[in-house]
Amino acid sequence: MKQPARVWSLLLHLALFAWLVIACLPIVWTAIISLRQYVDAFSVPVKWLAPVTFENYSRLWIDKAFYRNFLNTAIVTFGTVSVSLTVGCLAGYALSRYRGAVGFWLLITALVFRSLPHSTLLPSFYVMFDAMGIRNEYFTLILVLVAINQPFTIWMLRSFFVNIPQELDEAALVDGCSRFQAFRRVIIPVMWPGVVTTGLFSFLLAYNDFLLSSSLVNAERMTMPAAIAYAISAESEAFLMQGVAGAVSITIPLIILVLLFQRQIVSGLTQGAVKG
């Protein structure tokens, strides 16, 4: 009985390793060609060894001022995550302690809105903000991203709060805490991995957004994904290589983020964030 189990275990590990190679290969190859000239990066046949250059990165970050797009992305992402988590924690906690079914079905209805493609919501936002004269502003982009993501954030955080016994709330109230103090000092520390996990999803929504950023703001406030897309689509070899360098640059913060919060992310996912 042990021999077949070992064989299946070996096959499973081999399959996982093969999947890992297939998933990582495009990222690794993009990083490699970002350090080459255009003629070496897209040569036929493929050049496995070629001179290394950082010219693509210097042109992108210095000549094209890509740092502005980085700052725009940081502002929009920070604003979206901050508002989403603040509202999501308060609403999710309230819904987890509310015993009626009205709040739950309201949340389900909001999730239907969340599931709609962004392209179906963009025209109404565009026309409304343009008529109000506030289309090209950071807070309008943050507002739209929060509106789209908030139902999912509340639903996910509610699932974490449901798994926390209400006896913790009652014990904190008996010890003299107000309802908000119990929430801030007792409940939030217990479910901090869930907050980090939910914050990561909100971060990815704002960080990777292309459609809204390219439509609701101009080039001065455009985020990194939109700027990279325009560079890659330009009919220029130099712009194409800058877009490749940008694709690598935008990946590095994500890797750092996962490495910094990997323990909280794993803990949050294993706590049953999608239960309840």
Quick tags:
single chain; 276 residues; mainly alpha; MetI-like fold; globular
What can you tell me about this protein's structure?
This protein is mainly alpha-helical and 276 residues long. It has a single domain, classed as MetI-like (MetI-like fold, Orthogonal Bundle). It has 13 helices and no strands. It has helices at residues 2-33, 38-41, 55-63, 66-97, 102-115, 118-132, 138-162, 166-174, 179-190, 192-208, 211-216, 224-233, 237-270. The longest helix has 34 residues, at 237-270. The two termini are 38 Å apart.
Question: What's the SSE blueprint?
Answer:
Blueprint: H1 2-33, H2 38-41, H3 55-63, H4 66-97, H5 102-115, H6 118-132, H7 138-162, H8 166-174, H9 179-190, H10 192-208, H11 211-216, H12 224-233, H13 237-270
Helix pairs in contact: 1-13, 3-13, 4-7, 4-10, 5-7, 7-10, 8-9, 10-13, 12-13
**Which stretches of 5+ consecutive residues score pLDDT under 50?**
none
Which percent range describes the beta-strand content?
under 5%
**What spatial form do the alpha-carbon principal axes imply?**
globular
Which percent bin holds the helix content? over 70%
Concise overview:
It is built from 13 helices and no strands. It has helices at 2-33, 38-41, 55-63, 66-97, 102-115, 118-132, 138-162, 166-174, 179-190, 192-208, 211-216, 224-233, 237-270.
